[in-house]
Amino acid sequence: MKDLLSMTLPDLITYMEGIGEKKFRAGQVYDWLHRRCASSYDQMTNIPKTLKEKMAADLTFAYPTVRTMQESRLDGTRKYLFRLSDGNYIESVLMKYHHGNTVCISSQCGCRMGCKFCASTLLGLTRNLTAGEMLSQVYAIQKDTGERVSNVVVMGTGEPLDNYDNLVTFLRMISDPDGLHISERNLTVSTCGLIPGIELLRDENLSINLALSLHAPNDKLRKTIMPIARAYSLKELIPALKDYYAVNKRRLTFEYSLIRGVNDTDECAQELADLIRGMNALVNLIPVNPVRETGMKEPSRTDVLIFQKKLEKYGINVTIRREMGRDIDGACGQLRKRYSDSETENDNL
Ligand code: SAH
User: Fold this and answer.
1) Residue range 2-60 in CATH 2.110.10.10
2) Fewer C-beta neighbours within 10 Å, C or N terminus of the chain?
């Protein structure tokens, strides 16, 4: 059965014509789903009951439900835990900035990339999310807050380029003028560096932002914390990013999670500057979020500032990620992991 929320407008038109319905019904249903964020057939008041029954029989339409939500008292950041139709859990985060509301979505249920500092990968990959499941994270949050979402970052659980086709369908649908119409320039995909995916994305004619999770300035160190570095070296990755920039002209972001005693030395700062010098890029420093299972610690505030100053001295654009929702924190993936663990324990009772 096809998944209704993942169907593009042309898909819906084909479906309607196939069951002998008028084409305009596709537009009406699409509008309910992707502009008005309807989460059930009941809400589609201008669609005949018989058609809704036919669709319910032919298509799956399972909206994720909010299992829990934590809201920061400091800055209004909200962390949502959604339960999917098959019982799996995913996390999404809403961050309120001056320039608008940003939602950070998950692209997979779990992750198989195995980065040593990350909680999302501890349980491995369960499955890919559909385009509809990615969209519905944004829709559900927009509905919950009643405020427009203006930016989406694919930086939650999962490796987006490991779920390439669904990711691209999602990006096209979220920026579709017939849907929420979030500007492509306000969409960001974060990857640990799957070069074939970067190359495909380069040629999609999408003006989206790319963020590369670098975390180490050389392969030797990178291999110790990111298994993907064994498959793709920086010697191949940096040119792939330069090619991406040459086509799409959006400033690149390098994410660099600072881990005490691992990648926060003066030599690392210098090597990092040498690696990316001359690129139109921003380094985003993130003091690593400690996860019990990983044993990795963040540097002191002073050491983070020293690392930043060092990069600036070498002429690199650098920011320190503003830490949102400190009071509800717990690294990405920890909420999901806690619930997945406890549900499993409950199942065993
Ligand atoms: N798989 C993608 C996107 C998801 S992770 C990627 O690798 O980019 C989003 C970002 O958070 C990545 O830069 C990731 O390396 C980083 N990250 C994961 N766990 C972290 C932690 N405990 N502390 C700080 N950053 C972390």
Assistant:
1) no
2) C
